[in-house]
Amino acid sequence: MDKKEKSLVVVQLSGGNDYLNTIVPYGDDDYYDFRKTVRIDQSDVLQIDKMYGFNPHLSPIKALYDQGKVAEINGIRYDNPNRSHFRSMDIWHTALPDEIGSEGWLGRVIRELDPKSENVLTGVNFGRGLPRALGVRGVPVASVGNLETYGLFTDMQDEAEKSLALRAFTHMYGGIGKDSVMEYLGQTGRDALKGADILRTAPAKYSSTIEYANNSIAQNMKSMAQVLLADLGTRVFYTQHGSFDTHSGEIISHSKLWDEVSGAVADFYDDLKEHGRDEEVIVMIFSEFGRRIKDNGSGTDHGSGGVAFVIGSDINGGMYGQYPSIKQADQLEGDLRSNNDFRSTYTTIIDDWFGLDSIPIVNGQFEKFNFVKA
């Protein structure tokens, strides 16, 4: 089999994932002093070493970690933390911490991978709307709710009626005239038509023994596998899950969310491995920020710093970056004082996975990790 082009899957944990309860500093007494109720007991932690370990609800990801397939990136952040969901996510999406950006970093990646926009499916989002990370003017990206029913006017059973509707849609988005907005809408409409027709073919080509769970993240990961295995030329996949905004009732909700995410990612990896395609894809998991070091009795409030994961067969597994100290004297106004810019992770993926020039994409030059195998 010819070696396929490399692809990236991005999983966004929306709402601010609790770093301290994801990779647990169970060997540090300060953790249990600050986390009186919202904590993971030492006996439940899936140990990495004598100080740190995985939340037990990440056991499928821990199993991949033990196989050397997971880069766990500690202390990931941007300077001058902002606890607004909207602004913080905007920073991650545009790779511009100090100004309002107009282009998404992954949209720029897609533009470099397909500079002539020859494939309207180079980038595909699974879920509602279009994340800003994928948004660049002139770069087509498909956004899919349900792959099984994706398409235009799929509720029309009569083929003649559907044909008329599609022709009307084509004329409506024809881009006639010099107005730039209409031209943009016209191209977007034509891309939507083309992308829908192609994506509809993916499920029929798919066969697997993997049984994905019946939740949104698992079904989105299954759809990604279907599209990837259909060889439609998609290089960037995106989805999100949440909400990880666990101000109250955190132990139950955070556990459930990680059960869903870790199970979905592990099933996706197993699916690709079953088809001999696991060396072509990496999965990056991130959240816009972490939570406060002290709990609030039932949950945790918005904080700074966090953890990210990069998963795949071509990943040098292990812990990267430094786990921030949670000692009172080292805290940043009650938050973790994190230590590596998120753009270092982006740079590593762009340079070493895709083989692109990262500097114009992430708006600068940043130190790289070595989690991508040479």
Describe this structure in words.
- The chain has 374 residues and is of the alpha/beta class.
- It has two domains: 7-147 and 210-362, Alkaline Phosphatase, subunit A (3-Layer(aba) Sandwich), CATH 3.40.720; 151-199, no CATH class.
- Helix content is 33%, strand content 14%.
- The protein is built from ten helices and twelve strands.
- The protein has helices at residues 29-34, 59-66, 85-94, 105-113, 159-172, 180-199, 216-229, 250-274, 342-353, 359-362, and strands at 7-13, 23-24, 46-47, 53-54, 70-77, 123-126, 142-144, 236-241, 281-287, 306-311, 318-320, 340-341.
- Strands 1, 5, 6, 7, 8, 9, 10, 11 and 12 form a nine-stranded mixed beta sheet that branches. The protein has a three-stranded antiparallel beta sheet with strand order 2-4-3, with no helix packed on it.
- β3 (46-47) and β4 (53-54) form a beta hairpin.
- α2 packs across α8 (250-274).
- It is globular.
- The two termini are 21 Å apart.
- Residues 152-156, 172-178 and 180-186 have low confidence and may be disordered.
- Number of separate strands: 12
> Structural class from helices and strands?
alpha/beta
Strand content: 5-15%
Radius of gyration: 21 Å
Q: What name does the CATH topology of the largest domain carry?
A: Alkaline Phosphatase, subunit A
Work out the helicity level: 25-40%
Which stretches are low in confidence, meaning pLDDT under 50 for 5 or more residues running?
A: 152-156, 172-178, 180-186
